[in-house]
Amino acid sequence: MGRPTKSPGSHSPFSVHQAGERWIARCRVYPMDGVSRQIERSGPDPATALALLQAAVTQLLGSTHTLGVDSTLEAAGKMWLEAYRRSHPNAAPGTLDQYQRCLNRTLHNRLSRVLIRELSVPLLEGIVASILAERGAWNAKMSRIVLSMVCQHLVRMGLIERDFAAATTPIRPAKTEREALSAHDVDVVRRVLIQWESTKRRGVRPNADIRRILDVVLGTSMRPGEVLALRRRDVLIADEQVFVSVNGTMQQNGQRKPTPKRARQMRIICLPVFAADIIMTKLQVQTDDDGYLFQTRQGTPYLLNNLDRAFRKFRDWAVDQGLFDDLESAVDNVLFSTMRKTVATEIASLGDLELAAKLLGHASTETTRRFYIKELPWVDQRTAALLQDAFGYGD
Length: 395
Hints:
The protein is α+β, with helices and mostly antiparallel strands. The protein has helices at residues 46-61, 73-87, 93-106, 108-111, 121-135, 137-156, 183-198, 209-220, 224-228, 273-285, 304-320, 336-349, 353-360, 365-371, 382-391; strands spanning 10-11, 15-19, 22-30, 37-43, 235-238, 241-246, 249-250, 256-257, 267-270. The protein folds into three domains: 10-61; 73-167, Tyrosine recombinase, N-terminal domain (DNA polymerase, domain 1), CATH 1.10.150; 183-371, Intergrase catalytic core (hpI Integrase, Chain A, Orthogonal Bundle), CATH 1.10.443.
């Protein structure tokens, strides 16, 4: 009878023997490349030698192979995230931080006593439901996503047969619809911003960059993070026209991602005069090609959270002063995020939905129509003539 074959990702039993004053642990490993290797490690005692050999085997075969059906789901989550980092080297740091927080804060206590062999749809349904009740829809949705990816990892390792989390009830947080602002409302916001900047008060003077960033958003439809990521080298001047290359975005942690939200959304935009004037003014201050056009007083990049916080502070001040009474829209719609909708609606209202989609960086006009344009359907005016003929008063 021939020697039994070993499956890839396995190893032979460990052996340990003494050689002089040292102990040597040895085994043969069978990596996924199909080429078997004999490895050994030595130590002053058998336990140390075996521990060193185990670490070497784990490194060679991958830490995921140390999982078993009696491992906890918490351990599986940690090993999934390690594997995810290796297989997604370009993953945004903010995304990785989000997954890590979900594992450490939301799922930690719930997964520490659950064994892989105990996984089932009802079990995960209960876990997600408890998170929904205690921490809200957003945390429940993120937890379900992470649990699904952990399950898929375990399927690939051959420890479970299917993704149990995918069969749990989908979580759909209630959407808060924000409407685009009218041109009138934009004028009101700009006027109040200027008044806010010039108002004398105690403490740090309001930052005028908020209005400048707002104008660049209005002049380009760029996301605020894309505006904050603009560098001197991203500005192009040709035939007395100013263009900006949208090729990055500022993330929540203050790091620049080398693409917009999606890589296919890279684009070059011609600026209207009011936005071009702001960019040209910034170019006179920023001389470093890699330097950001919009920086704090300390010369550091703006953080999105700080920008949003400052804008909310301005909005609350304007409401307290009664300066937003002339708004046609609700005050809650005065946000940086609604400005892209405002631009898209204005461009589309001129009859060019495709141009609006290109300006926003969308792959199709359907995304622009569904999520960005405030559109009132026009009923065919022939109905007026038909109804007049049917129900109109005679002469």
